[in-house]
Amino acid sequence: MTGFRCQGTLTAMGAEDTPASLAGQVTNKDPAVGLAAVVALRRLLEELERVHVDNAREQGWSWQSIATSLRVSRQSVHEKHASRRKATGKED
Fold this sequence. Notes:
The chain is an all-alpha fold. It contains 5 helices and no strands. The two termini are 19 Å apart. 4% of the residues are buried. Helix 1 runs antiparallel to helix 3, helix 2 runs antiparallel to helix 3 and helix 4 packs across helix 5.
């Protein structure tokens, strides 16, 4: 189920906004193009993190295990994702 959400996001990006295309645009000499690509990549990264955190929690991973994999503190990953998961009924 979570994979479909991510796929929808990737599909909605459009051919000119694929991750490979955006990565190429980051090196563009035009600051407007490069900075727009940075914003789009940040959004994609945030969505990927949400998808994979949800997947890990659904498979029984602890917040500490997720934090270790993301190389952040347990507190930071919990603060970022727990309230969203509770609000959507995915977390007790």
